[in-house]
Design a protein that fits this description.
By secondary structure, the chain is an all-alpha fold. The protein has eleven helices and no strands. The protein has one domain: Orthogonal Bundle (Tetracycline Repressor, domain 2), CATH 1.10.357.10. Helix 2 crosses helix 6 and helix 3 packs across helix 4. The protein is elongated and about 65 Å long. The two termini are 35 Å apart. The N terminus is likely disordered. This is TetR/AcrR family transcriptional regulator. One of its GO terms (molecular function) is DNA binding. InterPro entries: Homeodomain-like_sf, HTH-type_TetR-like_transc_reg, HTH_TetR, Tet_transcr_reg_TetR-rel_C_sf. Pfam families: TetR_N (PF00440).
């Protein structure tokens, strides 16, 4: 899906739509495995949409009820509070949706594998920045939760660690063998890439009013990482 890789113009809008649709589809599939009524599924699906678009605090019970096509009383029939709804929403996101997203992203990386390490960096950085900005409300909510839930954080990080070992490590080894990449463990390299991308996007995730120029930011981040991860005597 080149529109995700490029994330500019009409293709950038495509990336936003596709990333949100991917989350919604994975979330809907996760709800089918739970002992929920159709109305309860509708309520949780509405919460995902509204929390992602408006944020947790700005979403009212009426908003949820209207989008789910249920009464306001039905919203809290199973989940007694708005926080209860959030907890019910985040659990499948961490255990089902995140693994699916990780698997899909690893597949994208494998399909966009390039002989040039800089091109590899450009794809990862641009793709993840576009994803983060288009889902900033939901990511903000998840950040608040995982910082206070060590088990959920361990679960999420473990899933990405497994994905790195299975998919990315062989790709990085090829770049190392061709002299394009410093001889560090794959997890260290990906942690360096991830921390740089997160550090760049975090202000824009936390501040809705701020807009990130993904093209410009990608060039700067790729320049920084390409130099920092290049093999040399300093390493």
């Amino acid at each position: 899906m080149r529109c995700i890789a490029l994330a500019r113009g009409r293709k950038g809008r495509c990336a936003v739509t596709q990333s949100r649709q991917l989350i919604e589809d994975a979330f809907a599939a996760s709800l089918q495995t739970d002992d929920l009524t159709d109305k309860q599924r509708a309520v949780l699906t509405a919460c995902l949409t509204l929390f992602s678009q408006k944020g947790f605090d700005a979403t009212s019970t009426r908003d949820i009820a209207q989008l789910a096509h249920v009464s306001e009383g039905t919203v809290y029939k199973k989940y007694r509070s708005k926080q209860g709804l959030l907890d019910a929403l985040l659990a499948p996101l961490a255990t089902v949706v995140v693994p699916r997203l990780a698997k899909k992203f690893m597949g994208e990386i494998a399909r966009n594998d390039s002989a040039d390490f800089r091109a590899f960096l450009d794809f990862i950085v641009r793709d993840r920045m576009a994803f983060a900005i288009s889902n900033r409300q939901l990511i903000r909510i998840m950040i608040g939760r995982v910082l206070n839930d060590s088990q959920m954080l361990t679960t999420v990080l473990g899933q990405f660690s497994d994905a790195i070992t299975e998919t990315i490590e062989p790709i990085l080894k090829r770049y190392q063998q061709s002299g394009q990449l410093v001889d560090w463990p794959a997890t260290t390299i990906m942690r360096t890439i991830a921390s740089t991308v997160i550090g760049t996007t975090m202000p824009y995730i936390l501040l809705d009013s701020a807009d990130l120029n993904i093209d410009s930011a990608t060039v700067k981040v790729v320049d920084f990482l390409a130099k920092g991860l290049s093999p040399g005597e300093s390493h």
